[in-house]
TrEMBL record:
Biased composition regions of type Basic and acidic residues, renumbered to the chain: 1-17, 123-133
Ranges of Polar residues composition bias in the record: 67-76
The UniProt record lists the keyword Transmembrane: yes
PDZ domain ranges (all copies): 436-510
InterPro entries xrefs: Chloro_Bact_Ser_Proteases (IPR051201), PDZ (IPR001478), PDZ_sf (IPR036034), Peptidase_S1_PA (IPR009003), Peptidase_S1_PA_chymotrypsin (IPR043504), Peptidase_S1C (IPR001940)
SMART domains documented for this protein: PDZ (SM00228)
Single GO biological process annotation from the record: proteolysis
Protein name per Swiss-Prot or TrEMBL: S1-C subfamily serine protease
Superkingdom field: Bacteria
UniProt lineage: Bacteria, Bacillati, Actinomycetota, Actinomycetes, Pseudonocardiales
Length: 522
């Protein structure tokens, strides 16, 4: 480094750049020194120096006072700079050791010009940080040095369990500490599980004691369950196939020979078509073919025979003993559900109902037993039984609110068994039935006080003509039965046999009249 120059040197002659740098005298104790590089100062243009140079006789930066006067003494008080700034940017302490190589060569480790340098390391002159002419270059990224001064190494390969346990790669104390921690964690988990299990013990019992079941409740005679148990085996379901079409209904076995009583409209499609098949299905799933014995379209009854050994036969009761409010049970296959049992009461008796043939030859008016037991399509032909299990009617029709087939709304009708029994016996004996006939057509009328059946026309040669009944007469009673309409007149004379003589009360031109009629045959 250069020694500090005095103002005289700065204002005096410039050093010749070509002058030789003085070297210390060579000797045994002399140490070679690195001298400063010569300063290159370009030549100054005299014209420029004359314009920008210092005036003659002035060495400092300020001109001398004019007129030779001495400037007044001025004292400027300036606050001392902060210690940090003074230490960083202030002049060095003259007593501090110099950064230059000692001039007396005290620091040499060897003698002579070629001895080891006590200040510079080998190749210091080639260090880019000391060579001002070296080019800029990117070095390694800055980072904290490692503890031992070596470079930080990357992550090595992971150790296997064998290396950890037997390769002396892990401190045994660390393994022991890890084992103790694992034992403590396991013990804590065990305690938690123990407390949890003890809390759940209140919900379970290893030795439960379930209350012994009692015997099923007694089903006394006359209960619905008892009636169903005795009657359902005597009820069959019919499956009828006519070409690609099918139908169904129900029936009840009334004779040990295999005779089954049902409705005419159930089997009429098979009777009127060739190649039709009728199959009877019993409550246990047994199937067998069935043959039509006889049909009666005027009462909507029919008898079918099935070939089965020892069938269960239903008990036949009496419909004349029924009273409104008696409990009844309907059994059949509504909507194809075989063995269905529904319960209700007798809603009315002797209810004249004209039946819709539903595409068959049925043209019947029945003196029905009305019930609120649920009856649906498929119940037709099945039995209506009383509280003793005896058959008191054959379920035949329902009344619905909509058009066409509808469900039960509590208005079901059954043919009284007293009427059905006689028809069935005649069909079994001869395959056909004859009915009493009066020989008139009538319509229902009412004058506000009296209801009756008004004669519309009289059949020539019939029983009514022979008795003197004429058109316009209003029949109000036949035998012991009052007549409230045309349908009731039909069921009234069909209760008698052909050839019976009955008294007929009528109104003619406002006057009551009674005539005797000998019923004919259809």
């Amino acid at each position: 480094m250069n020694e500090r120059s005095t103002p005289a040197e700065r204002s005096g002659d410039r050093q010749d750049p070509d002058a030789e740098t003085p070297q210390p005298p060579a000797g045994d104790d002399a140490v070679p020194r690195l001298g400063p590089r010569p300063i290159e100062r370009p030549a100054v243009d005299p014209a420029v120096a004359a314009v920008f140079g210092r005036p003659g006789g002035i060495d400092g930066g300020f001109a001398a006072p004019r007129n030779g006067s001495t400037p007044p003494s001025r004292t400027t008080l300036v606050a001392p700079p902060p210690a940090a700034l003074a230490s960083a940017f202030g002049r060095p302490d003259p007593s501090a050791p110099s950064l230059q190589r000692p001039e007396n060569g005290a620091g040499a480790r060897g003698g002579g010009a070629h001895g080891d340098d006590a200040f510079w390391t080998d190749g210091a002159e080639r260090d880019p940080w000391r060579d001002p002419e070296s080019a800029a270059a990117l070095g390694p990224p800055a980072g904290p040095p490692s503890r031992n001064g070596s470079a930080v190494r990357g992550e090595g390969a992971r150790l296997s369990l064998r290396e950890v346990l037997f390769g002396k790669r892990v401190d045994p104390k660390a393994l022991i500490a890890l084992g103790v921690i694992a034992v403590l964690v396991g013990a804590a988990g065990g305690l938690v599980g123990r407390f949890t299990a003890e809390g759940a013990d209140g919900l379970t019992d290893p030795d439960p004691t379930i209350t012994q079941s009692v015997e099923a409740r007694e089903r006394p005679p006359g209960s619905v369950a008892d009636i169903a148990r005795r009657t359902v085996p005597a009820v069959v379901s019919f499956e009828i196939r006519v070409g690609d079409e099918g139908g169904g209904g129900s029936g009840v076995i009334i004779d040990p020979a295999g005779y089954v009583l049902t409705n005419n409209h159930v089997v009429a499609p098979a009777a009127e078509a060739s190649g039709a098949q009728i199959e009877a299905v019993f409550h246990d799933g047994t199937r067998t073919g069935a043959q039509i014995v006889g049909r009666d379209p005027k009462t909507d009854l029919a008898v079918v025979k099935v070939e089965v050994a020892n069938p269960v036969v239903a008990t036949i009761g009496s419909s004349s003993e029924l009273a409104v409010g008696d409990g009844v049970i309907a059994i059949g296959s509504p909507l194809g559900l075989a063995g269905t049992v529904t319960e209700g009461i007798v809603s009315a008796v002797n209810r004249p109902v004209r039946l819709d043939g539903a595409g068959t030859d049925t043209n019947a008016v029945i003196d029905a037993v009305q019930t609120d037991a649920a009856i649906n399509p498929g119940n037709s032909g099945g039995p209506l039984v009383d509280s003793t299990g005896a058959v008191v009617g054959i379920n035949t029709a329902i009344r619905s609110l909509g058009m066409g087939e509808g469900g039960s709304i509590g208005l079901g009708f059954a043919i009284p068994i007293d009427d059905a029994r006689g028809i069935a016996e005649e069909l079994i004996r001869g395959g056909a039935v004859t009915h009493a006939e009066i020989g008139i057509n009538a319509r229902s009328v009412s004058d506000g006080t009296t209801d009756g059946a008004q004669v519309q026309n009289v059949q020539q040669g019939g029983s009514a003509e022979a008795a003197g009944i004429i058109e316009g007469d209003v029949i109000v009673r036949l035998g012991e039965r009052p007549i409230a309409g045309a349908d009731e007149l039909v069921v009234a004379y069909r209760e008698h046999n052909p050839g019976d003589t009955v008294a007929v009360e009528l109104i003619r031109e406002g006057r009551p009249l009674t005539v005797s009629v000998v019923l004919g045959s259809d």
